[in-house]
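Structure ticket #2291
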Amino acid sequence: MDISSRIAAPLAAQAYAKARPAMDTEGAETGAASTAGAFTSLGNAFVDTLRRGEDSARGVLTGGADAHSLVEALAASQLAVETAVTVRDKVVEAYQEILRMPV
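Resolution: structure written out below.
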């Protein structure tokens, strides 16, 4: 058994355990609450990523940080913004599909 299969199996089990409450039909309120909590934590992570980028840029300008940390923070910020824009576009596209459905 190689290392990747030893790592992948527990990760898959963890992902399933996290997703299972959202799929549970008996506890719909719990699934909705966990989904709302997930979106809240994603939003907080997005804001923290942008804040780290700003703090790193401020540190480079004042001489308190190196350029390498700025490049890393800006790359993470760019990825976060691109991901948020892609998710937004998919949500808008899904909403427009719903509006086009015949009643």
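Closing remark: The mean pLDDT is 81.
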